[in-house]
Q: What sequence folds into this?
């Protein structure tokens, strides 16, 4: 099921924000372009989203920041920029938030408590832990079948 179909399926009074990232776009055979994001943003508006979390892309902090600024131009009140919890992603997040206090940032790809603390230390609005992947790697309490719960 594609992202927009899932958005429509789960839309209810408690669902006020949606997310997109390069992997979701790839899964839906949607190009990771500003034009494609603009189309998804229109769908989010129709669904009365309060927030749309959009992941920027690039291999350097400068590239991620430049793409994030272009994304934010579309609707800075609706968009929260997602950046990966990598050294380059954290640099880009820090630069974006320093440039404008109105920028909302989610640090994504969080697998450990240390990464949550890094997101908090730079002042990110959100940290997005990947609980499923953490459980797959036995990083959550009770997720390792070889260890008994005490």
A:
């Amino acid at each position: 099921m594609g992202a927009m179909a899932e958005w429509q399926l789960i839309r209810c009074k408690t669902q006020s924000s949606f997310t997109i990232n390069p992997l979701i776009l790839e899964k839906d055979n949607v190009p990771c372009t500003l034009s494609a994001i603009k189309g998804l943003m229109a769908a989010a508006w129709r669904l009365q989203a309060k927030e749309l979390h959009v992941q920027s892309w690039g291999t350097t902090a400068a590239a991620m920041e430049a793409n994030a600024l272009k994304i934010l131009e579309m609707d800075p009140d609706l968009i929260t920029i997602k950046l990966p919890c990598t050294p380059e992603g954290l640099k880009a997040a820090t630069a974006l938030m320093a440039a404008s206090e109105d920028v909302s940032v989610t640090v994504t790809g969080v697998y450990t408590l240390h990464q949550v603390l890094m997101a908090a230390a730079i002042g990110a609005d959100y940290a997005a832990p990947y609980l499923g992947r953490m459980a797959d790697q036995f990083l959550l309490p009770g997720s390792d079948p070889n260890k008994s719960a005490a």
About this structure: The longest strand covers residues 79-84. The longest helix spans residues 61-74.
